[in-house]
Amino acid sequence: MWIEQKKKSKKNLFNTTIGVFFILVVVSFAVLSFSTRNFSAGIKNAGLSLFSGIRGGIYGVTSFISRTALSIRELSILRKEYNELTDRMSSYEQLERSVADVRQENNRLREQLGFSQSLLYRHIPAELIGRDPDNLFSAFVINKGSYSGVAIGMPVIAYQNGAQSLVGKVIQAGVFESLVMPLYDSSSYVSSRLAQSRYEGITEGRGSPDSPLLMRFIPKQAREEINPGDMVITSGLGGVFPEGINIGRVSGIRYQETEISMELELEMSIDFSRLEYVFVIDAASGQTAGPTDLQSAPQTTGQSAPQTGKTDG
Question: What is the pTM of this model?
Fold first, then answer.
């Protein structure tokens, strides 16, 4: 009986071993199948996602840093190019202004040259270079003196707005510079004539370029023949100023019934605020001569005190 139980026990153990073997085989196949397909794929997918995220983050950071550095570099280059273009544009604008200024200067000089060639008197072209420091609102300085033939008392004219007009006269002649008393100076007196009616009088300044000139000693009976806008010219009497130079136009008529003469207010033909070039003329020459004829004239040095009077002062 013990033997039968022993045999039975061996048989049960064998059966159990066989069952465990088959279970292990099945489990092994299942594990093998799972690991080779789903599990392996899951691990791969998880690893791929993880490393893809890390790689994407690293790429994003490096790309941002690279783009930022590139943008900063490009911005620096653009700023440099912008500054260079701005400087170049400023240079071009300055060059354009310079060319325009030179063109205008050439036109003015050509105009003055044409007028100079038409003058029938010996004359000296000059340029205004300053004001008399002792009389800032009246006398002015020109860049020609006795070395060029300028002498005290010589008339000074200018070409402006297509016509010659009286500027004043020389009151002091240095070697290389001269002082000119303008027409509007209160010490200036010029023998003058109305171009249309031919009535004569004395034109005097009133001390300011903004104030009208005053033509005095005109017969009262002339008032019917005088109209605003009539031109007043030099009469040539007194021998200082040549005849026929424009002085100004009538802007007002002043008279009183109790007086035998009347006065005219004149708007000057010369705009002294735009005056640059003048011509000192030798009215005594009375002949056609170019601007260089006076270069060999005898040198004279005038006194500093102006000569004034009631006629052609």
Answer: 0.61
